């Protein structure tokens, strides 16, 4: 094969031509790299905010998102499964079941009629439990306006299929762009307008890159932006979803060890090594490791592992104290996403051959009858490994029968 030589002057002229074409479509050519002119685009994008938004799920987080959007001047329909809850929200202007004491802004209306909630919506935010997501997708399908984006405000991996939740939505509601809202966000603080940051992630299609301000990710981020809520935009939906799903399982591990009497060293170790488990799984599924170090990964993990306000941390803490699962939360049937997803996260990791020992330990305690103290002792006496992982070292632990000092704070 004959290779033609291109002179520097001719190459320079070619680059100038390409640069001109790209510039007209919102791209910038710098050396051999293309960059989206995002800042210039966003400054012109006020007209691209969504005006009518449907939130499916009137729990604490769905209500908090609805509050943020309504406070920003958008028309929000909040769907509640129970008619009595929807009626109570409209009459009292509070969600006394999930966010008692917080007044709901004008522009927020609740309904238990799915068709009414979705009528005329420009975007849908799904804040229902991950275990009911597929059923919810089927129920809303006949009422969905064509082609509108669907953003997930729930986190997890579907049990059985091993699908990320975006894959479930895509399978049940084809033709709709699917994304996620994720980050270190407690619902009550968000609704109270405390300074809060989160990530809005959608896969960017070619058209989205040509006109960034019209993309679903940017439009939803702008719609959420206001008051104390600061969104960031991502095109790594896989990385964002993996961080959200796995962090709940790691938070249960932190809670278990905290409840058993261990303190900050232990929590820091679990957060750090848990982040590594998230990175490995995200990368194996096509996500980016750096996404996991952002708000939707390390940020969310740090928050969830730092307070028993998190149901995942709280469940682990109670189990670590020796409270039976049936008696946790004073016997109330509280749905804990990390408990639900421990099985599915571990199943998915095994399928793609990613070792996740912390998640496996939690899964063993929650679902396989393992003794909590024995399971964590086994976790701590695994072979000694390298950090970074690329060093590829595995040494037998010198004290395989180590007994951790449970109950000695």
Main sheet summary: 8 strands, mixed
What radius of gyration results from the CA coordinates? 23 Å
Which CATH class of the largest domain? Alpha Beta
SS-derived structural category: alpha/beta
Q: What is the terminal separation in angstroms?
A: 73 Å
Q: Strand order, biggest sheet?
A: 5-4-3-6-7-8-9-10
Helical percentage: 40-55%
CATH topology of the largest domain: Rossmann fold
User: Can you tell me the CATH superfamily of the largest domain?
Assistant: NAD(P)-binding Rossmann-like Domain
Query: What CATH architecture label of the largest domain applies?
Result: 3-Layer(aba) Sandwich
Number of domains: 2
- Give the count of helical stretches: 18
Q: What does this entry look like structurally?
A:
By secondary structure, the protein is an alpha/beta fold. The protein folds into two domains: 46-235, Rossmann fold (3-Layer(aba) Sandwich), CATH 3.40.50; 239-395, N-(1-d-carboxylethyl)-l-norvaline Dehydrogenase, domain 2. Helix content is 45%, strand content 12%. An eight-stranded mixed β-sheet has the order 5-4-3-6-7-8-9-10, with helices on both faces. Strands 1-2 form a two-stranded antiparallel ribbon. A two-stranded antiparallel sheet has the order 11-12. β11 (384-385) and β12 form a beta hairpin. α11 packs antiparallel against α12 (264-284).
Element layout with pairings:
Elements: H1 8-23, E1 27-30, E2 33-36, H2 38-42, E3 52-56, H3 60-71, E4 75-79, H4 83-92, E5 108-111, H5 114-118, E6 123-126, H6 133-140, E7 150-152, H7 165-172, E8 178-182, H8 187-191, E9 196-202, H9 206-210, H10 216-224, E10 229-234, H11 237-259, H12 264-284, H13 289-292, H14 295-304, H15 311-320, H16 337-351, H17 357-367, H18 372-380, E11 384-385, E12 394-395
Parallel strand pairs: 3-4, 3-6, 4-5, 6-7, 7-8, 9-10
Antiparallel strand pairs: 1-2, 8-9, 11-12
């Amino acid at each position: 094969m004959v290779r033609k030589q291109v002179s520097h002057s001719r190459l320079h002229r070619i680059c100038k031509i390409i640069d001109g074409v790209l510039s007209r479509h919102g791209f910038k050519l710098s050396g051999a790299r293309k960059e989206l002119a995002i800042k210039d685009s966003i400054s012109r994008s006020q007209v691209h905010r969504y005006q009518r938004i449907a939130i499916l799920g009137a729990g604490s987080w769905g209500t908090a998102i609805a509050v943020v959007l309504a406070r920003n001047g958008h028309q929000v329909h909040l769907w509640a499964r129970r008619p009595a809850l929807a009626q109570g929200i409209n009459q009292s202007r509070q969600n006394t079941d999930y966010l008692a004491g917080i007044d709901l802004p004008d522009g927020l209306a609740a309904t238990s009629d799915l068709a009414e909630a979705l009528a005329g919506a420009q975007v849908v935010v799904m804040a229902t439990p991950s275990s009911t997501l597929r059923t919810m997708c089927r129920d809303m399908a006949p009422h969905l306006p064509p082609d509108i984006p669907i953003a997930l405000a729930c986190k997890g991996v579907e049990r059985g299929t091993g699908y990320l939740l975006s894959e479930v939505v895509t399978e049940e509601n084809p033709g709709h762009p699917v994304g996620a809202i994720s980050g270190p966000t407690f619902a009550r603080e968000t609704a109270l307008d405390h300074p809060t940051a989160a990530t809005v992630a959608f896969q960017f299609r070619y058209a989205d890159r040509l006109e960034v301000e019209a993309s679903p990710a940017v439009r939803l981020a702008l719609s959420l932006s206001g008051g104390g809520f600061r969104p960031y935009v991502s095109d790594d939906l896989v990385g964002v979803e993996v961080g959200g799903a796995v962090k709940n399982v790691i938070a249960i591990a932190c809670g278990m060890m905290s409840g058993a009497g261990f303190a900050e060293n232990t929590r820091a170790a679990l957060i750090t090594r848990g982040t590594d488990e998230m990175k490995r799984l995200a990368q194996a599924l096509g996500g980016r490791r750096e996404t996991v170090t952002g708000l939707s990964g390390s940020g969310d993990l740090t928050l969830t592992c730092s307070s028993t306000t998190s149901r995942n941390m709280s469940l682990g803490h109670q189990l670590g104290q020796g409270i039976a699962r049936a008696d946790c939360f004073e016997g109330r049937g509280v749905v804990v996403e990390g408990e639900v997803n421990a099985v599915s996260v571990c199943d998915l990791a095994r399928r793609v051959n990613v070792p996740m020992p912390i998640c496996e330990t939690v899964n063993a305690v929650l679902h396989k009858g393992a003794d909590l103290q024995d399971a964590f002792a086994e976790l701590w006496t695994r072979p000694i490994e390298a950090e970074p992982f690329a060093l590829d070292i595995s040494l037998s632990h010198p004290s395989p029968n180590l007994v951790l000092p449970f109950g000695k704070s």
